[in-house]
Amino acid sequence: MSTVVVTNAAFEASVPHPGVLLVRIVSKPMGAFTIEARRELKAFLERAHLDHSARCVVLIGTGSAFSVGSNIREFEATPEWIEAARLAETGLNEAIELGPVPVIAACNGYTLGGGAVMALACDIRIAGRSATFGVPEAKLGAMPTATGTMRLPLLVGRGQALRLMLTAQPIDAEEGYRIGIFDELVDDDKLLDRALEVARQIAAVSPKAVAASRRCVSTALRLGYHAGLAMESEITVPLGLSDDAIEGKAAFVEKRVPRFK
Questions:
Q1: Nearest of 57, 157, 55 to residue 105 by alpha carbon
Q2: What would the pLDDT profile of 61-81 be if each residue is shown by its tens digit?
Q3: CB neighbours (10 Å) of residue 219?
Q4: Percentages helix, strand, coil for the chain, rounded to the nearest 5?
Q5: pLDDT tens per residue, range 110-136
Q6: Nearest CA among 142, 21, 133, 131 for reference residue 89
Q7: pLDDT tens per residue across span 213-226
Q8: Which contiguous run of DSSP H or E holds residue 196?
Q9: Helix, strand, or coil (residue 228)
Q10: Which residues of 119-133 are buried (b: 16+ CB within 10 A; e: fewer)?
């Protein structure tokens, strides 16, 4: 049974399993975000990180959409609004990637625009077979900002990324899985269960090891091989001397389940 943590117009959060935080995007229409909604979700995730009880987050939409990105009805053709929207969206995506807790995107239905970029910021993307992925911003005279023009080519390569951006055409879940956007593909009715299963597996291992691995991978992708290697070298000894490392090795020798704090 889930424990409800927060409910508002943009998202609902609950704890379906110890260490697992489930965040449902409920904003309308189709998981569209206002500037304020993005700020609220970012602040909530940052509070959850500080709480230390959540070891993995699952992000999922409702109905026919994961998220279609920004709420177009809110748009204002002013430099101030455009910059505020960019900062709010970029801030949320950076909080997802750089926070200490991994985030799984369970992509149900339409995963478009800013919603697609938000999914790219997550550590793992699991899609239902009816999911659709796209960056159609060019149809609106825009581009996939808020880290989108960096994240997509890092994941699928320059050619595939530009094909999606320049044609503004969506792709189905099968193609998304084939080119590497989605890491797993499951039946729609199994999507949440599978995402929660992976989250429980992550929550069961060392949170310090999880944070260290994510930090090294993120550094290498952002700054290159040598920066990633330097980060790995910096982290390896402290991690090997940590309480988690001591507990993990003791549990292995004693043939018991480790109790990571």
A1: 57
A2: 999 999 999 988 888 889 999
A3: 19
A4: 55, 20, 25
A5: 999 999 999 999 999 999 999 999 999
A6: 142
A7: 999 999 999 999 99
A8: helix 191-204
A9: helix
A10: bbbbbbbbbbeebbb
pLDDT of residue 152: 97
Q: What six digits make up the tokens of 220? A: 């290498």
The neighbour count for residue 183, using CB atoms within 10 Å, is 16
Looking at residue 4, what is its pLDDT?
A: 61
Residue 157's identity, in one-letter code, is G
The number of residues in the chain equals 261
Give the DSSP per-residue string, 26-86: --TTTT-B-HHHHHHHHHHHHHHHHH---SEEEEE-BTTEEE--B-GGG---SHHHHHHHH
Is the previous residue joined to 29 through a cis bond, with omega within 30 degrees of 0? yes
DSSP 138: G
Q: Report the SS3 class of residue 205.
A: coil
